Amino acid sequence: MYAASSREALDGARVELETILRGADATTVGTELLTVADTVGADRTLRITLADSATAPDHRAAFADKVLQGKVADATRTIVASTAARSWSSDAELVSGLRQLGREALLLAAKAGDKADTVEDELFRLARVIKGDNALEQALSDRSRSTADRTALLRTLIDGKVDAITERLAVDAVATSAELPGDAIDELSQLAAASNGRKVAYVTSAGELSSEQRSKLASQLSEIYAAPVTLHVDIDPELLGGVVVRVGDERIDGSIAGKIATLRRGLR
Fold first, then answer.
1. What totals of helices (H) and strands (E) does the chain contain, helices first?
2. What DSSP string describes 175-226?
């Protein structure tokens, strides 16, 4: 969650990013922005200098431009300089903003390459795999292991099995997020859906849903939320029947188990 000034800074940087990407390679820019975020995050002096509100915005931009000269694409250098010139609540939020811009640039690259749905689905499925394996999730989140070791473990799981953009985003999440890896990658899946103009509905069903049932449920939810809805379905036999749907903070419990629980509460 960003402070108010950082939210405003990020919104402005997003507009700049979309403009710059019209004439640039979004994959390159996104990848380089994540690398810049890593570099700035690891260098306290650099981080503080770029976010120092006591320094004039054009001086911060010029400093960022000088530091990155010849090291990244011109488009990347321009967006970093523009981002540094904005008012951030803290140096940590500047780093977080650069990382967010990198992720969004990669997702825009996926959309431009007609791979947005693929990346979204791969991120969702990867999150399910990680969440379903306690030993794996613990290994990926174990801070006593080096970042290189944890990301290498992830790569052995997904190398050659997912799109390159999916891999880059997932590796970044495991390397940098304070959240559990499954949750961090789940959030990326939602971000991917949002970049494609969709909402995500997490559906838990007592059994497999047919194509017709999925289509009908997606249509109903799209009407409710006035936007295309992507279904991510998990199976839980303990529901006995029906489905539980979560969209954002809203939860719709249409399961038999949920109805029984409601009935029991009413009898107390």
1. 13, 4
2. HH-SS-HHHHHHHHHHHHHHHTT-EEEEEEESSPPPHHHHHHHHHHHHHHHT
| Amino acid code (one letter) for 209 | L
First to last CA, the chain: 40
What is the value of pTM for the model shown? 0.82
Residue 163 contacts residue 107 (beta carbons within 8 Å)? no
In this structure, what is the dihedral angle of CA atoms 257, 258, 261, 263, given to the nearest 10 degrees? -110
Query: Do residues 78 and 36 touch, judged by C-beta distance below 8 A?
Result: no
Q: Tens of pLDDT along 48-89?
A: 999 999 999 999 999 999 999 999 999 999 999 999 999 999
Residue 10 CA to residue 32 CA, distance in Å, equals: 17
Give which of 264, 226, 266, 217 is closest to 245, Cα–Cα.
Answer: 217
**Alpha carbon distance 25, 219 (integer Å):** 35
Using DSSP's 3-state secondary structure scheme, residue 173 falls into: helix
Tokens of 54: 């006591």
Estimate the share of the chain in helix, then strand, then coil, as percent rounded to the nearest 5: 70, 10, 25
